[in-house]
């Protein structure tokens, strides 16, 4: 029998008290530590959710024309855009108690640990949806204690700062379903060719089984494994009471149709247009490249898919496949200044250099309409005459000489009207006008039309020797077609972020930069390049196009040794084409020189097919007068050639042409005398 002495009893009590004291303070310290940890994580706030998502580009009709991603196709959707069957199937197989725990299912974790110990291997998972979400967002899948600790911390932070619906939505949009499909929407589109909200029970139960092992349970990798996993999920759903035995049996027997095709795989649709859109997103809207590429943006553009297709097909048909000539093309709707089509080269896969918006090339005579608008503002009229002859011009205070020439050195060697000079592209008339107005006048006028590239106020500027971009030239012509209302070219109508919030919406900022009446006069002058009545000492520059035209066009062609252009418009559409060599080589072949006009007319005719024919407006204050184009005077019925010209009222010619009136016959006095005598003396 053990006898406890008083001293022994006292020692035992002492140790018990010490143990209780230490235990209490240890527990308090642990609670304090845990509290501090939770407080620290609370102060950290919600962890940033930065999931790469595909940015989508839409045409004006709402059709997707492109997508940017880095191999992770993901289209974020809200929970209400996901089939209830998929939600139920996912919860049944991944985390039945998701809505009842706070990030960790301790009972399930204990059960998994026992199962692993018995099997002496990792045979059962116990991660909750929140834990998997944390792992997908922030961590690698390495099986280390450090990773597990980080996962636990992120799990707590997610649970502390997000609702269960937000967590489930995030999980479904980040989980990998195989074959490059990240998130339920991309997976649903890939496997079944439909949106996630339209999934049937059979499809949903099959999809829910894939994340456990995409390379094993994908129906494309192994339909047998996918069906086996589907049966398990259906049984779990039945056990959970979310479906009936009949529904389970029917879904299990249903034969699902697997498509195995990703959405938006066509990277050929308007690649140069999309590159221009991306440039606008970065330069004009200030969106960083990472967000543009992987921010899940929805970019609604101005692209007209029909116009784009016509432009691409026309260029391919006209330019020889073995030619090194490069094209640039832009079409713009004048009323809105929406860019409806854009081509920046023959083949984007060969060269992504966008010649429509990046290249600066000499516009040649396509620059002359700006000069003649300035002339109209400074007292000229379409009937104003200057002499077309071989000429030399002194400039720079007489220290330099400029000797322009007309095409093929053809000169009228007499006075010609401004309207005819524009139609036949007389260079002498243009330079004389330019120097009379002073070169700075043309620089300022071109800037009003929207030409932003720096221009040199030289005598040769009248002939388009200062480089410009195709986009700004076509937009300048669209400004004419819009009655002188200018607006920057518009590529984007609206941009939404990944959550559907509108972060940019275009609002028109059109500005009446040009006089409506003078613009109408200039526009009518530009129809002259197709009117053979203005051919004389030289043919009008659009003579080859006129027989193929089905409606009125206004336009201007232009060329240098290295650049060939054609730009023109109707009230509904403006379009322009440039062709040339990237290396600045001279264009020498006759067929190559004809490319721009052919492309332009084919495009305009096809783009307007079925559209009503519209004449150019003649605003109040503008009058139309029949003029003899040879002398600029009001035509008479005897003039062999006439051209209806527009004038601002009060500036039209007052003098009538008398050059072609019938000449009076000379009188024969002898005959008249005989006739008088015969009448007086009929007997004689």
UniProtKB/TrEMBL annotation:
Q: Print the keywords alphabetically.
A: Carboxypeptidase, Cell membrane, Cell shape, Cell wall biogenesis/degradation, Glycosyltransferase, Hydrolase, Membrane, Multifunctional enzyme, Peptidoglycan synthesis, Protease, Transferase, Transmembrane, Transmembrane helix
Give the molecular function GO annotations.
Answer: penicillin binding; peptidoglycan glycosyltransferase activity; serine-type D-Ala-D-Ala carboxypeptidase activity
Q: Where in the cell is it found?
A: Cell membrane
The record's section on Pfam families has: Transgly (PF00912), Transpeptidase (PF00905)
- Name the InterPro entries on file: Beta-lactam/transpept-like, Glyco_trans_51, Glycosyltr_51/Transpeptidase, Lysozyme-like_dom_sf, PBP_transglycosylase, PCN-bd_Tpept
Where does the Penicillin-binding protein transpeptidase domain lie? 329-604
Which reaction is the catalytic activity of this chain? [GlcNAc-(1->4)-Mur2Ac(oyl-L-Ala-gamma-D-Glu-L-Lys-D-Ala-D-Ala)](n)-di-trans,octa-cis-undecaprenyl diphosphate + beta-D-GlcNAc-(1->4)-Mur2Ac(oyl-L-Ala-gamma-D-Glu-L-Lys-D-Ala-D-Ala)-di-trans,octa-cis-undecaprenyl diphosphate = [GlcNAc-(1->4)-Mur2Ac(oyl-L-Ala-gamma-D-Glu-L-Lys-D-Ala-D-Ala)](n+1)-di-trans,octa-cis-undecaprenyl diphosphate + di-trans,octa-cis-undecaprenyl diphosphate + H(+); Preferential cleavage: (Ac)2-L-Lys-D-Ala-|-D-Ala. Also transpeptidation of peptidyl-alanyl moieties that are N-acyl substituents of D-alanine
- Ranges that cross the membrane: 20-41
Q: Which residues form a coiled coil?
A: none
Q: Where is the Glycosyl transferase family domain?
A: 62-237
What's this protein's family per the entry?
Answer: In the C-terminal section; belongs to the transpeptidase family.
Q: What is this protein called?
A: PBP1A family penicillin-binding protein
Which organism is this protein's natural source?
Answer: Bacillus aerolatus
What lineage does the source organism belong to? Bacteria, Bacillati, Bacillota, Bacilli, Bacillales
């Amino acid at each position: 029998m053990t006898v406890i002495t008083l001293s022994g009893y006292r020692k035992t009590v002492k140790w018990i008290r010490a143990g209780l004291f230490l235990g209490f303070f240890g527990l308090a310290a642990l609670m304090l530590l845990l509290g501090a940890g939770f407080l620290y994580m609370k102060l950290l706030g919600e962890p940033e959710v930065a999931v790469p998502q595909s940015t989508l580009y839409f045409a004006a009709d709402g059709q997707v024309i492109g997508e940017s991603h880095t191999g992770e196709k993901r289209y974020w959707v809200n929970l209400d855009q996901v089939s209830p069957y998929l939600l139920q199937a996912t919860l049944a197989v991944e985390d039945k108690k998701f809505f009842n725990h706070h990030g960790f299912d301790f009972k399930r974790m204990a059960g998994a640990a026992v199962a692993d110990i018995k099997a002496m291997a990792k045979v059962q998972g116990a991660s909750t949806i929140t834990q998997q979400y944390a792992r997908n967002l922030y961590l690698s899948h390495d099986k280390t204690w450090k990773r597990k600790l980080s996962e636990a911390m992120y799990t707590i932070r997610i649970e502390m700062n997000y609702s269960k619906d937000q967590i489930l939505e995030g999980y479904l949009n980040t989980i990998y379903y195989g074959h490059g499909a990240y998130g339920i929407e991309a997976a649903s589109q890939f496997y079944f060719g439909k949106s996630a909200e339209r999934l049937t029970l059979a499809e949903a139960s099959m999809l829910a089984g894939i994340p456990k092992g995409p390379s094993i349970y994908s129906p494309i990798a192994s339909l047998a494994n996918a069906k086996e996993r589907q049966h398990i999920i259906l049984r779990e759903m039945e056990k959970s009471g979310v479906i009936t035995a009949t529904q389970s049996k029917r879904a299990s027997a249903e034969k699902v149709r697997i498509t195995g095709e990703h959405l938006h795989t066509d990277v050929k649709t308007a690649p140069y247009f999309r590159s221009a859109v991306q440039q606008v997103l970065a330069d004009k809207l200030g969106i960083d490249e990472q967000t543009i590429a992987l921010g899940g943006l929805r970019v609604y553009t101005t692209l007209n898919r029909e116009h784009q297709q016509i432009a691409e097909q026309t260029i391919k048909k006209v330019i020889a496949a073995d030619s090194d000539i490069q094209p640039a093309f832009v079409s713009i709707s004048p009323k809105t200044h929406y860019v409806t089509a854009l081509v920046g080269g023959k083949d984007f896969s060969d060269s992504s250099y966008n010649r429509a918006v990046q290249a600066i090339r000499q516009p040649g005579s396509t620059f002359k309409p700006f000069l003649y608008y300035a002339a109209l503002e400074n007292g000229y009229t379409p009937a104003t005459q200057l002499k077309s002859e071989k000429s030399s011009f002194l400039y720079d205070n007489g220290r330099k000489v400029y000797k322009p020439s007309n095409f093929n050195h053809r000169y009228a060697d007499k006075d010609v009207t401004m309207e005819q000079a524009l139609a036949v592209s007389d260079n002498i008339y243009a330079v004389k006008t330019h120097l009379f107005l002073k070169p700075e006048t043309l620089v300022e006028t071109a800037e009003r039309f929207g030409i932003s590239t720096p221009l040199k106020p030289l005598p040769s500027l009248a002939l388009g020797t200062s480089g410009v971009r195709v986009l700004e030239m076509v937009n300048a012509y669209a400004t004419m077609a819009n009655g002188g209302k200018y607006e920057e070219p518009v590529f984007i109508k609206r941009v939404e972020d990944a959550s559907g919030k509108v972060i940019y919406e275009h609002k028109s900022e059109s500005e009446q930069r040009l006089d409506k009446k003078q613009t109408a006069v200039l526009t009518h002058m530009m129809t002259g390049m197709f009117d053979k009545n203005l051919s004389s000492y030289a043919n009008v520059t659009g003579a080859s196009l006129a027989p193929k035209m089905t409606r009125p066009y206004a336009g201007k062609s232009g060329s240098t040794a290295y650049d060939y252009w054609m730009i023109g418009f109707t009230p509904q559409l403006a379009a322009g084409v440039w062709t040339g060599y990237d290396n600045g080589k001279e264009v020498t072949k006759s067929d190559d020189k004809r490319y721009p006009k052919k492309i332009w007319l084919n495009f305009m005719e096809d783009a307007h097919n079925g559209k009503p024919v519209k004449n150019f407006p003649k605003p109040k204050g503008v009058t139309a007068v029949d003029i003899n184009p040879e002398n600029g005077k009001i035509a008479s019925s005897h003039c062999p050639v006439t051209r209806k010209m527009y004038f601002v009222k009060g500036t039209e010619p007052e003098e009538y042409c008398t050059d072609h009136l019938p000449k009076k016959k000379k009188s024969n006095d002898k005959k008249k005398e005989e006739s008088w005598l015969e009448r007086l003396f009929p007997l004689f």
